[in-house]
Amino acid sequence: MIRAARLLAERVPGLKLGHFTLDKHLPVAAGIGGGSADAAAALRLLAKANGIALDDARLFEAARLAGADVPVCIASHACVMGGVGENLTMLDLPPLSCVMVNPRVAVATKDVFTALGLRAGQLRVGVDEILEAVTLPGAGASAGEWIIQLSGGVNDLEAPALRVQPVIGEVLAALRKTQGVQLARMSGSGATCFALYDDAVSADRAGQAIALTHPQWWVHAGTLS
């Protein structure tokens, strides 16, 4: 948050600053963009206090330099991200009922990418063809249509993350055993995993069941949109 504020101050002479109080309820190093969301929240607050529009190029540049996931958190909308996070395409995503689970084990993104084994600048084999072939559901598509489309994809970081923290496999197995689950994946570089359900009732019940059998884990049922 402080780094993001300093980056904006470097680009906006006379920027009015203040004090931040962070009340954080998300696990750290969890693969769900908590730190990026914190940085984006700081930038949004400073923008509001200084009359800066959210599409101001100076704000976007500060967000980009603060971290690859900060621009999409500034947008605060479901997006397809390109480049190193600076190219955003808004999605018309319907509400998706979900459960997120973290085994309260921190996973360093650097360790996961090291386990992935790519050299600097190297791409996954066939990534260009995959990106060209992706067709996302159009406006007005149902949650079911989105889940079908997402089921055809993978998280390339899941396998290396499992080598770094095998407990991720236990989380995925627990989610996939819940009633009504339609899709379960690891989020980002882990260790948080998520599952999608047909409705909020099913998601709530699944979250309660996992919290009961794994009281040491962080569990949250909610909606993605």
Task: Tell me what you see in this structure.
It comes from Afipia felis (Cat scratch disease bacillus). One of its GO terms (molecular function) is ATP binding. Residues 2-75 form the GHMP kinase N-terminal domain. Keywords: ATP-binding, Kinase, Nucleotide-binding, Transferase. Pfam families: GHMP_kinases_C, GHMP_kinases_N. The protein is 43% helix and 15% strand. With 225 residues, the chain is of the alpha+beta class. It has 2 domains: 1-90, Ribosomal Protein S5, domain 2 (2-Layer Sandwich); 96-224, Alpha-Beta Plaits. A 4-stranded antiparallel β-sheet has the order 4-5-3-6, with helices on both faces. The chain has a two-stranded antiparallel sheet with strand order 1-2. The longest helix is centred in the N-terminal third of the chain and has 16 residues, at 34-49. The radius of gyration is 19 Å and the shape is globular. The protein starts with a helix and ends with a strand. The mean pLDDT is 92.
CATH superfamily heading of the largest domain: GHMP kinase, C-terminal domain
**Overall structural domain count:** 2
Q: Strand order of the main beta sheet, please?
A: 4-5-3-6
- Taking Cα atoms only, what radius of gyration do you get, to the nearest Å? 19 Å
Distance between the termini: 24 Å
SSE arrangement, N to C: HHHHEEEHHHHHEEHE
Structural class: alpha+beta
